[in-house]
Structures are given as C-alpha cells and as structure tokens.
Specification:
The chain has 347 residues and is an alpha/beta fold. It has two domains: 3-61 and 161-336, QueA-like (3-Layer(aba) Sandwich); 65-141, Thrombin, subunit H (Beta Barrel), CATH 2.40.10. It is built from eight helices and 17 strands. Strands 2-1-17-16-14-3-12-13-15 form a nine-stranded mixed sheet. Strand 5 and strand 6 (73-84) form a beta hairpin.
Amino acid sequence: MLVDRFNFDLPDSLIAKEPANPRDSAHLLNISSDMFCDTTISSLPSFLKEGDVMVFNNTRVIPARLKGKRRNRSIEATLHKHLFGSTWKAFAKPSKKLGIGDVFQIADDFYADIMDKGEAGEVTLKFNVDENLHGMLEKYGLPPLPPYITKKREAAKDDITNYQTIYAEINGAVAAPTAGLHFTDELLKEINKIGVRSAFITLHVGAGTFLPVKTKDTEDHRMHSEFCTITKENADIINNAKRVVSVGTTSLRTLESAADDRGIIHPISCETDIFITPGYKFKTTDLLLTNFHLPRSTLFMLVCAFAGEDKMKEAYEHAIKNKYRFYSYGDACLLEKNSLSYRNFSK
C-alpha cells in the first residue's frame, strides 16, 4: 500500500522536547471506546480491569551516542545493533568521510575500527575493548535521544534518567520504549491494587526505529531486525490473562513475533523484523498504550492496523487540535483492537 496514505501535517510546536514532570501527568487520549476521552496517564487504572495483564518492555537504554574524530574531522555515531563481542552496527555522520580501515577516536583509551560500510550512513564498528564496553559507553557515551530532539537541543544530564523507564533492567536498547516512560512507582502500585498483573518481556529497540519510510510502497520497505526475549514464566502469565494490555509498540511486536496461530505466546529468544500494516490480523493484544508517532512512520502504520485507519486519523486530528505533545517525550493514547481486522492488499 502507498506510504503517502499515512502522511499528515504536524505543527513543529507539538514535538515534545522535554518529558512531562511528573511522568504520569502526561496527557492520555483514551480512544478504546466510541468516544474520545481526554485525561492523563495517572487515570490509566480506571480503564483497566481485574485479570488484565500489562506487558512491559524491560530493555535498558545504553549511552549509545558517541562523539569523536577521524583524524581531525568530527564524527558522531549512534550504535543501533550489537553483532558480537565488541562489534556493533552504527549510524555515523558524516559517513562519507569514513572509510573501511579508518579509526573512530572517541578518547585516548577508547576507539573503534571501521570494519564495513553500508547504506544510509551505516558503518560497522569494532571497539578496542570487549568485556568493559558498557563501562566505556557509560563513561563517554550520551543518551541516544531521537534526531527530532537533538536537532532542537543537546542532551542534558536529566536525559540520562528521563530517557529510561523506571523498570529498565537488561542493557541493549539504543532507543527507549517510550510508552513506558510515563510510569511511576505509585502508578504501578495503583495498577497492582486492582488486580492487574505485570509481565516483562525484552526487545532491544534499535535506532532504526527513527528511520523514515523512504519508499513509495510499504511492500518495498525493509525493517531493521531487533533482538527480543520472552521467558516461559512471563509467557505463562500472558497466556492466562483475561485481557492483554501492551505497553508500547515494542511489546506488541514482540508478542506478535512469539504467538502461534491460536494466539498462544511461546518463549522466544531471537531476532524479529515484523512489519505490521493495515490488514494484519492481531493474535495477542486487546489494548495498546502508545505515544503519538511520526507521519509516514512504521509505528503510525501499526496503530492504524491495530485500531482502524479512519479512527486513528480522526484521533490524531483531535490530538493536534487539542495540542497533545508528540513523539518520544510526548503524550500517549490508549487503543482498543479493531474487531474488523482482516487481510487487505488494496493500495
């Protein structure tokens, strides 16, 4: 289907540059019923029921944005996929100045060799440290804020904690699962009080999630793969839910990658490059909590597939009119699965 089908006009002023404070004061647009309801994240428990299971992505964002030099030329690289050992794929700029065999010097004791070059500024980096790579990233790296924030301002100290969920546990993401940024300890306690269980899965979000869809047709778009894990313990919790509530598109994509045709979740530990567009038949999730996404993005396509294309376009018009804040540090919406989901190859 044509990518232009998922385009819309968004005022630059609605792109959130800072998170809501406190986190659960962010606005929430509930479109899980026939009427739109404008409220805040703190009211989320009122839309949940005993027996629901909320599925959280517990990946931890690493300081994946690195500044350094190739000879005297300033270079910036954002890690996006771990290959093995101390070898990562990264998006570099300006990548034209880098060649295979060059050295990307970050500090006197921290550098990487350019092992390969790909398309769209992608390079393969092999660092000079292995066992202590995460320690060196913590020392020299910056929070990998999305480009639509870093074009407006530099990363600040507060971003180290702001761009991380409170339940982050497993190192590996180079972008935050942003729907989870809205949760506080108090909100989680309130949700638990009404008999809602929590399950934790892992998908290490890659920087490829920020890449725009440049093709004219969705059939020609290639998704970057991301590593995901679901344990048997958490699969069992999810399979026994009355309703499954995915916190974020990363949780939903992981569940769909792990489900069989009956919607049963199986333990997995693998790569996924699942690409969901309207017509996809969802097997696992009843409600989806997610932020507001970019025009022409794979994530806007996903929410159109989940809740219905016409409904989501109407919801986004409502959000823009009412000055909801968009993207990673922005507000959220609660969506109900469209019961009329079917396979649709129309363009």
